[in-house]
Amino acid sequence: MRTKQDIADWLDEHERRFTRMSDEIWDNPELQFLEFKASKLQADFLEAEGFRVTWDIGGLSTAFAAEWGAGKPVIAFAGEYDALPGLSQKDQNTPDPISAGAAGHGCGHNLLGTGCLAAAVALKEWLGSSGHSGTVRYYGCPAEEGGSGKVFMGRAGAFDDLDATFNWHPWYINSAMKGSLLSVNRYYFRFHGQTAHAAADPHSGRSALDALELMNIGVNYLREHVTDDVRLHYSILSGGLAPNVVPDYAESYYYVRAIEPDTLEDVSRRVIRIAKGAAMMTDTQVEIVYKSGSTRVLSNEVLADLQYDVMRELGGIDFSAEEQAYAAAINQRFGDANVKTLVNRYGVDPQTAERALIGDVFPSCDKDFVSPGSSDMGDMSWYAPCSMLQTATWASRAAAHSWGVVATGRTSIGHKGMMYAAKVMALAAAQLILSPEILERAQAEFRAVIERSPYKCPIPDDVPAPSHEHPLR
Ligand SMILES: [Zn+2]
Domain check: are 174 and 222 in the same one? Predict the structure, then answer.
């Protein structure tokens, strides 16, 4: 394996090994910080491939780094493998859970992690046989979904020596991201009151639920006085058990999001004041627990352009008529939000945007475009130049975090998108090694930003990494 073309051929030849791994992770969906099977499966695979594996990165038992090679540059691939609660879904194109209420891969992280791993192994093969020097590092990153695994890993110094980072995300078109995602803080608000019989002596009670409701009302008034990028959402985890008992405990779980960390800090501060105000109004106490957070994505344009060039050389993904028909049935059950994004943000012609599977290659969206979600890839992107690739693995109308995404995650549709992503990332990484001037340009672009606005880890030092015993190690 000497030329770059050999990388693509090698991935084609070894496709089954990777699709089998991805399917195994799909078959065993594991929630944040509990990705025991997935992390063990991947770490064992990489160890057998000659990678040096280090566990417990950032104090997380399902986080590991697997490294091969030596010296500069250090090229990272950031994999994920956590699933989402309640999204169990059979391997079929109509909604039907395998087990109602169980977890499922509604964000395609079975593909995401395995695609990054495949790219890392392919790059290692190429480095080994071509004689170029450099270090390939795969990170098994837990808890992207709300747990900010990478933030804990970064806080512990795991990303300090990186020269470039690659990551991809399953999606419904092929494009390298230039835009961003929102910064986020996540909190638990736990109200403690005084219980009493709700009819016999309500005057003795101090309702924790009243406090929780008043906090939500306050936050809903706050919405009018924040910038348009701010997003506030909550769920109620506990609100008492019986109407005839004044609840002495109530708990909510909040997400506060904004583009810029400064705005996020300010709005978070105001939300916390509202919680304290609600406690004061109801003569209860509030305990505020910071769960996790992440920072907006810093997309590297040089790396995005490099991946776009690779994609144009490779061509897009060919989906068969059978695959199109499978996806069309999924599309019937979703609205046109994705179609509108394609037409309005990417300038895709409406006819193409209506196809059930869109395997074409599209230029990056505008760098000012902020997708209204969040990812801990954001934090990793502040340690070294980083590009998030997106490839077509979903039906074009399927919503992220839905059964529609799970439904293609174990099919040839998902497999094609995953192997395509692996090729693009591995080829782009090889190009960085062959052309150090491209890497230098990427790093200059990166330095210009972080010198102006240095990265600040959103998770306070005193918030411990969530630790769980790993039963398979
Ligand atoms: Zn995701």
Answer: no
292 CA distance to ligand 1 middle (Å): 16
Residue 210 CA to ligand 1 centre (angstroms): 35
Whole-prediction pTM: 0.95
Among 15-29, 152-166, 311-325, 366-380, the minimum mean pLDDT is found in: 366-380
Determine the distance from the C-alpha atom of residue 355 to the mean position of all C-alpha atoms in its chain, rounded to a whole number: 26
Residue 94 alpha carbon to ligand 1 centre in Å:
22
Measured in Å, residue 232 CA sits from the centre of ligand 1 at 20
* 300 and 273 housed in the same domain: no
pLDDT at position 3 = 80
Range 414-439 burial, b when 16+ CB lie within 10 A, else e: bbbbbbbbbbbbbbbbbbbbeeeebb
Q: What's the residue count for the chain? A: 473
Give residue 273's domain range. Answer: 183-293
Q: In angstroms, what is the span from residue 185 Cα to ligand 1's centroid?
A: 17
- pLDDT tens figures, 57-104: 999 999 999 999 999 999 999 999 999 999 999 999 999 999 999 999
Distance 82 CA to ligand 1 centre (A): 9
288-317 residue pLDDT tens:
999 999 999 999 999 999 999 999 999 999
406 shares a domain with 284: no
Instruction: Report if residue 468 sits inside a domain.
Output: no
CA distance 434 to 204: 75
Between the CA of 169 and the centroid of ligand 1 the distance, in Å, is: 6
Could you tell me the distance, in angstroms and rounded to a whole number, from the CA of residue 87 to the centre of ligand 1? 13
Residue reference for tokens 């701010």: 230
